[in-house]
Write a structure and sequence with these properties.
This protein has 70 residues and is an all-alpha fold. It is globular and about 30 Å long.
């Protein structure tokens, strides 16, 4: 299965015209962490994934690329 999380995260952030630092502040992580997630260098924990889905108002399945439905 192709990994889509890092692509989806960046797409959602850019759609909302947010900086990595904006998302980092909301997530209580560093902007480097967001950058690493977007470059597929690391992945969020399950709790961070849920928090990201809530922040962007999408499902975790959408973030993970399991569905194309928000």
């Amino acid at each position: 299965m192709e990994r889509k999380f890092y692509k989806r995260l960046k797409e959602l952030r850019l759609e909302k015209e947010l900086l990595q630092s904006d998302v980092a502040k909301a997530m209580h992580v560093t902007y480097n962490t967001i950058g690493n997630w977007e470059r597929d260098y690391s992945s969020p924990s399950i709790y961070e994934l849920i928090e990201l889905a809530n922040f962007f108002e999408v499902t975790t399945d959408y973030l993970l690329g399991r569905t194309d439905l928000y």
